[in-house]
Amino acid sequence: MLVFLAAISSCTQNEVSHMANWNKDGIIQLRSMRDKVSTRLANDNGHDYCVYSYIAGDKNWYMEGIDVDGSNDSILSGDIYYWPKYDTLSFFAYSAYGESSITDVVATVDPPSITLYYEPQGQGTDFTIATTVKQAREPGVDNVTVPLVFKHMLTKANIVLKLSDELVDYNYTLNPGTSGAVTTEDIDSVYWVNLTVPYNRGSIDVATASPTWTLIDNSSIEFIQNRTFYIMPQTYNEEADSCVLQFQNIIIKRNGVVAFKGDLLTYKLKDGDLLNNTMEMGKEYLLTLTLAPTSVDADSVPLFGDAMVFSSSVVDWNDVVEVPITQLDSEYTRNK
Fold first, then answer.
1. What is the pLDDT of residues 162-201, one digit of tens each?
2. 329 assigned to some structural domain
3. How many structural domains does the chain have?
4. What does pTM read for this prediction?
5. Which of 25, 137, 199, 250 could pair with 83 in a Cys bridge, judged by C-beta atoms 3.0 to 4.6 Å apart?
6. Residue 166 sits in which domain range?
């Protein structure tokens, strides 16, 4: 699980007065890691991460809001931080750094708290937190590495459409889906998903031992033109129709001839579609709608059939190492 090792740097003695007892031979190094995953990236998107550290009992941050390159673990400012001679440092980190999804960060050092406010923008951005690390310079070792173990704080949802085996046997084909925002070039060739979920905003304290979200309103949010979503962990309500998805720009052909082009009927998640009606933090979901011979379009006109069939599966996102979607387990299936 070894990944990028790089000297992390920051601040000079003139910049941080409480570094009087530094050891100039001991440069602090960082290494970004994901729990049980061999990767160089602090999160799925490869964004920069932000580091804080402090000495217990001190009234100042030792490192405060330091921007670290997510691809090679180097401090972007080029500054150098040295280990203090006698004290143990506590480290906290989060990623992505500098993204519009993070609307505010309020940090206090005594007691340590880094309260971050998060609101998904557009398709959402992966967000991770490194668990607290307490470390001091090892005797006789000049450059000591701090292993920052990042864990996913959001829910990742992959939403796909497929044709039933019966339709495939009759030579029907479906246009491919897009996993990103739809471009002008894509518009006539790929399908996408509009997803609405109950919660779109929350706060979390990076400096706690086990960070958890506080959902701070229940305004629903609509994510459009995508197939992979990073969303707040939450529970949906079937009666409130609070979690809704719709496939758009579907092109179905038979023997190469277009049989249907348009949008599909909106699907509302029901009790039991997901275990406990919950999208858990740190879980990656595969939500699948299967077109059957009796499926209908957005106006309830039969395509060549009846209802769509919904199924889902879930894995621990933190434990996944490039696992193909087809290998996801714990499946829960429900017919419409």
1. 888 888 888 888 988 877 777 777 777 888 888 888 888 8
2. yes
3. 2
4. 0.76
5. 137
6. 155-200+220-335
